Amino acid sequence: MPYTYEDVGATREDRCPPGFHRLHVRTRIGEGEAVFRRASEALMTWELHRELSGVTLTSDAAKAAPGVDVIVGLGPITAPCRVVWTVEEYRRTAWAYGTLAGHPESGEEAFEITRTGDGTVWLTITAFSRAAKWYTQAGGPATRWLQHAYAQRCGKVLRRLCAPFEPV
Predict the structure, then answer these.
(1) Which of 22, 47, 49, 141 has its CA 20 to 30 A from that of 61?
(2) Is the pLDDT of residue 53 over 80?
(3) What is the spatial distance between Cα 118 and Cα 138, in angstroms, rounded to a whole number?
(4) Is the CA virtual torsion 26, 32, 33, 34 positive or negative?
């Protein structure tokens, strides 16, 4: 199944192609190596997405990797995606998926866990998108608001998943 946009992988370089809306949401998750490792695991194994209320995520792969297909569901809406890139480094873990035919939006979304020099762990979600279905086009700004709310919810859920690993 082909991607529904041309600039595949643009989120890796934090680029937003012309004609797309940009999203950037950054949430502090906690502090320390244990929080970073836990957040990275939850991100790479889909646990973060599966813990989101009302959202389903299915994949044949146990872990995010380039070429892995994923279907995100929100109620009756299904959104087929494919992982376009991943990164697993000392202070950075990330992956992005791009939309496939049938997705209500066209574009890419990246999820990145970073650990700064002072030990603070952050989740940053960046995306670029535009409507691909009549109902997302009709939703206009409300559709973008929902995407922003989803990104904020990801941060809250990840912070909850990592809370037991916070230093005392």
Answers:
(1) 22
(2) no
(3) 44
(4) negative
Q: Measuring CA to CA, which residue among 25, 43, 72, 26 is closest to residue 162? A: 43
Phi, then psi, of 12 in degrees rounded to 5: -60, -30
Q: Where are the alpha helices (DSSP H) in the chain?
A: 33-44, 47-50, 134-139, 141-162
Backbone angle region of 75, left / alpha / beta, with phi > 0 → left and psi within -120 to 50 → alpha: left
- pTM assigned to the model: 0.94
* Residue 138 main-chain phi, psi, to 5 deg: -65, -30
The tokens 């957040």 sit on which residue? 39
Q: Which of 141-156 are b and which e, b meaning 16 or more Cβ less than 10 Å from the residue's Cβ? A: eebbeebeebbebbbe
Provide the 10 A C-beta neighbour count for residue 161: 19
